[in-house]
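Annotated sample (chain length 391).
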Amino acid sequence: MPYEYKKNSHRSTQANTDKKAPFFFCLFLFFLFLSSSLLIADMDIFGYYENRFFLINNHEESWKNLKDKFSLGDYNRLRLKYKASPSKKVTVNVAIDFFTFHGFMTSPLGTYGNTESPDSESKNLEIDLDRAYVDLYFKKFDISIGKQRVAMGVSYLWAPLDVFNRINLLEPKEEKPGANAFRIYIPLGKSSSLTGVFSPDNNFSTSKSGFRAKTQVWGIDAALTFIRSGATETSIYGLDLRGENFFGWWIEGGYFVSPLQKDKKVVLGFDYTFPFKNGLYWLNELYYDSSGGKESSKYDFDLLFSGDRFTLGQKYFFSMLRYSFSDFTTASISYIGNLGDGSYFINPTLQYEISQNILISSGFYIPLGKKGGEFNRNDQSIFFIWLKVNF
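Output written by the structure step:
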């Protein structure tokens, strides 16, 4: 599997960075909560509760040894969101997560890294301030200040330009952890805009910054992106295109330049909905990363756990089919494969909406292909069942 759960492992680099918020951001958060507590007009509190249960089957173990063959784990998550608008020009946004982990689970699936607690069986409550930012609306531009979601690029899964977030291959649409950032958005007409982002670190020289210019040409959305990562001394020159010609298509690419090397990362994607009853949706993405390893024997899997990389090879393919049997029941199957080492995994999923606000999801992550490859290195399959309640 692309992510393996280890006891006594450390949080990802992203998580460590979040803990080192600069002083002026901490000061900003103090005044944010002080001011938001006094807000009265247009206040809204919402969120969701979810429980995620996982069962890992270790295929190398005998059925006679059930304790080692199966591992159980689950976690509870309560996410409270607060939104208030004291005026038409100001919006305050806050999101707080409350977690408890059980069994082998020490973090949400692949997203937040692993806990530093020496006891992976701990049921202690963990609290994470995941969003805390203010939106300021002006006549010619908008500004967002604080811990927020920062997104770059247009691809569904691989997202080479989304360097402000850790990529979760097992669940691409899961909420990404917030990043401390200052963002300015300048609309230029109906289809063009400029976006600037600065994400500070303890030292100014190790901070991240980005600039994105977006427009539309002949019905095609086009954007140029420049990102500077001070910690790795890397400059990224990006281009993404997105259009609709009978089927949807997109291209996202980045040229990564650092003192030690130069790399290219490119995604080619397309999707189409077949006119079959309720519609059969098909999505595909090819990904190439010149910085990846050519041989699986030279993979450094520790880079996945540190958050320094989310893939280890060079050539990948993702495909997903999704069909809605009714307004309440949806089935999908996904394939993610490393074309270089021949390993891949299949993810069949079934979702059922009990009501408008209650959703149950169940399925498998099944590793296949070459043994010892990136996606089939430990011969473990995962069964999961998730419950989510929105309010």
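Annotation: The first helix runs from residue 13 to 19.
Annotation: The CA atoms of residues 230 and 350 lie 43 Å apart.
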